[in-house]
UniProtKB/TrEMBL annotation:
Cellular component terms (Gene Ontology): plasma membrane
The ABC transporter domain, residue ranges: 330-565
PROSITE patterns: ABC_TM1F, ABC_TRANSPORTER_2
Localization: Cell membrane
Keywords carried by this UniProt record: ATP-binding, Cell membrane, Membrane, Nucleotide-binding, Transmembrane, Transmembrane helix, Transport
Top-rank taxon, per record: Bacteria
Name listed for the protein in its UniProt record: ABC transporter ATP-binding protein
GO molecular function list: ABC-type oligopeptide transporter activity; ATP binding; ATP hydrolysis activity
Length: 573
């Protein structure tokens, strides 16, 4: 709950209004039965003037209570919505500062549920809190005192009812608490399954996996349903039980009053307000129980959000480092790397130097560590040992802006965001002009299809870039990578969906138009890097060869083997 303090602190004025209005509302609820008793007494005493007078007071108090209730509902909702929005923004901002490793630690699905469903739970708790927190103790204590003052002889009815309601509330809500905790985990599971299935819908359909996927989803969904139904059952048991207890208390009170009304005629007027107070006591306990359950559920969510907010990013940039224009050299100095939590190193003692303007190919079998090496140049991870430097500066001493300006990384899987093509390209260069876009699109061989759209760079990119082919997405990703003319450009298997001719044209354009840029080309096929100035050969995390295609054919067994296998494959194809 400490987590919420600064968030609530921003809305002190609204909180004050919500608390005052709920107190007025509770006061009005407590006062009304007393006035009703007065009306009844006046009728019994046949004093019509008094009936009208108290009746008017009753109406005024009821209207005040109603207005206070409406004001409370508005302000409680306002505080809850604002706190939830602030919390969601803080969580989102925090996630943006996370490194790859931090995001992997939580998983994307888990973070999304924390940002949406958990924040929603906190919103409900805050709203319930401001509607019930003050009202509940006021109603409970006030109604208890007033009931005892109204018919002191019936103290035992009140005590019996309170004990019964308390026992049932504690029993049922203590069972509900853990169920609410389980719901969060199950929502996460069903969300993840649905997301995975829909994102991979083509695979599901082409492998005829609809039935299996449906069964997997149904199992998780049924579990969630089972927990929700159990909570529903518990609610459906307690409500009639409370009604029964209330009715019994009323019946006993009426019976008692019936026995004594002959000697004490005032009791007739008192019994109605007494019954009203009994109901208010019962409501206070029920609201209290519900609030505690929501608090238990909210506490789980607050803890989950707190875990995100208190996570210190495992990789930070040196904010003190000056802005600098890094040169295009890249130095790996005895670099080894293990993924967080893994035992085995994925890169082992790698050292090499790339000169500014060179085109460097990186080849190696699947899983040999090519992408991992590229990620270290873009500082998506830090090396476990050794140093990576760009332009002669250790990346740990470079601020984020300078690094991003110097290094552009075009990922293996092209990702575009919904918006326009231009919006996506401006991620590479915020102030990119149409001429910049055209130039970059020419290099990436994207211009020919972009120009076919009437609205060219203003053409819409749909969600998950569904309206572009794999090759088009790759070309636009390369366009975004080259638009700011980076000093170092990494193409991680980024031309795999391009035909051989387009791939060749991209490489030629890069060579010609980005002459000063150091380009790393990661490729499965040696033919993609055959003309590179230098090729690095990775094998099981080790740098086992370095040189031109010709040199490697002469002195690297691993390279020769890969080349021979690929050539044989080409012949077979
Ligand atoms: N995020 C990760 N967490 C843990 N291990 C990882 C992660 N990413 C990759 N690995 C492991 O690191 C090793 C190297 O992977 P990497 O992606 O660098 O290889 P690669 O040579 O680029 O492969 P490919 O050609 O198939 O893309 C693999 O064994 C892989 O299982």
């Amino acid at each position: 709950m400490k987590l919420l303090k600064p968030y609530l602190g921003k809305y002190k004025g609204d909180m004050f209004i919500a608390i005052i209005s709920v107190a007025i509302m509770a006061g009005s609820s407590l006062w009304q039965p007393k006035l009703l008793q007065g009306v009844m007494q006046a009728i019994t005493d046949d004093k019509m003037g008094r009936v009208n007078e108290i009746g008017l007071q009753l109406i005024i108090i009821a209207v005040i209570g109603l207005i206070a209730g409406a004001i409370n509902a508005i302000f409680a909702a306002k505080i809850a919505q604002n706190v939830a929005a602030d919390l969601r923004e803080s969580t989102y901002r925090k996630i943006q500062s996370f490194s790859f490793a931090d995001i992997e630690k939580f998983s994307v699905g888990n973070l999304v549920v924390r940002m949406t469903n958990d924040v929603q739970q906190v919103q409900t708790l805050v709203m319930m809190g401001f509607q019930a927190l003050i009202r509940m103790p006021m109603l409970f204590i006030g109604a208890l005192i007033l009931a005892l003052m109204t018919l002191p002889e019936l103290w035992w009815v009140i005590i019996l009812m309170v004990i019964l309601v308390l026992v049932i509330t504690a029993g049922v809500f203590s069972k509900m608490g853990p169920l609410f905790g389980r719901i969060q985990g199950l929502i996460e599971k069903t969300n993840n399954l649905a997301k995975e299935n829909m994102q991979g819908v083509r695979v599901v359909k082409s492998f005829n996996q609809e039935a299996n996927e449906e069964a997997r989803f149904n199992t998780a969904s049924s579990e969630l349903n089972h927990v929700n139904v159990t909570i529903g059952y518990l609610f459906s048991i307690i409500m009639p039980l409370f009604t029964l207890i209330g009715q019994l208390a009323i019946a006993v009170s009426i019976w008692y009053v019936g026995q004594h009304v002959g000697t004490h005629p005032d009791m007739l007027a008192s019994v109605s307000s007494f019954m009203n107070y009994l109901m208010q006591i019962m409501m206070a306990i029920i609201i209290g129980g519900m609030l505690m359950t929501f608090a238990a559920r909210g506490a789980v969510s607050i803890k989950r959000i707190g875990e995100v907010l208190s996570t210190e990013p495992s990789m930070t940039y040196d904010a003190q480092a000056p802005d600098q224009e890094l040169e295009g050299t890249v130095d790996f100095n005895h670099v080894s790397f293990k993924y967080p939590g893994d035992e085995k190193a994925v890169l082992n003692d790698i050292s090499f130097k790339a000169n500014a303007g060179e085109m460097i190919g990186i080849v190696g079998a699947t899983g040999s560590g090519k992408t991992t090496l590229a990620q270290l140049i873009a500082r998506l991870f830090d090396p476990t040992t050794g140093t990576v430097a760009v332009g002669g500066v250790n990346l740990k001493n470079v601020n984020e802006k300078s690094l991003r300006r110097a290094v552009a990384y075009v990922l293996q899987r092209a990702t575009l965001f919904s918006g326009t093509i231009a919006d996506n390209l401006r991620q590479g260069k915020a102030d990119a002009s149409t001429a910049d876009m055209q130039r970059a699109a020419n290099i990436a061989q994207a211009a020919e299809f972009v120009e076919r759209y009437e609205d060219t760079f203003e053409h819409q990119v749909e969600e998950r870039s569904a309206n572009f082919s794999g090759g088009q997405k790759q070309r636009l990703s390369i366009t975004r990578g080259v638009i700011a003319e980076p000093k170092v450009l990494i193409l991680d298997d980024s031309t795999s969906a391009l035909d051989a001719k387009s791939e060749k044209l991209v490489k030629e354009a890069l060579d010609h138009d980005l002459h000063g840029t150091t380009t790393f080309i990661i490729a499965e096929k040696i033919s993609s890097v055959i003309n590179a100035d230098r090729i690095l050969v990775l094998d099981n995390g080790q740098l086992v060869g370095e040189g031109t295609h010709k040199e490697l054919l002469e002195n690297s067994d691993v390279y020769r083997e890969i080349y021979a296998t690929q050539k044989a494959q080409e012949v077979n194809d």
